[in-house]
Structure prediction request, 164 residues.
Amino acid sequence: MKAVTVKTIKEELNYKSTKELVDLCLRLSKFKKENKELLTYLLFEAADEDGYIESVKEEIDTQFKSINTKSYFYIRKSIRKILTLTKKYIRYSLKKETEVELLLYFCKKLKDFSPSITKSPRLLSTYNRQIALVQKAIKTLHEDLQYDYQLELEELNEYKNLLS
Prediction:
């Protein structure tokens, strides 16, 4: 079966009653964990974006504490998992402020991580890529927010420059 376009789905949803839409959403939530998480965000957490950001930061903290530090292989694997999780939460929100906030937080945690990421070129590359993404996202924000986030980014860039 080939999936139809989003436009076609949108047109078809316009013809459904409220009860049919509720049934479709509930059925959709049963298939994938991500669908259920997205519905949870949209229904319960989208109204309080700051609370959502804080809960994601707590999740990131928990994940960083549980990293196996026996070798850089395990560290890299865990960092990639945390980054994937962070990006998933960013996709739920679709707000650039949330993206910048969470990526900056991830980079701070990575910078302060022990053992140092300076001994692993791959971890440094991951850090540098995320810094570049933050810089790109900051440019799309309002000027006042750009200034605030730019100050935080400069702090992380100093660390990046020390590594070079």
Remarks:
- The CA atoms of residues 41 and 47 lie 9 Å apart.
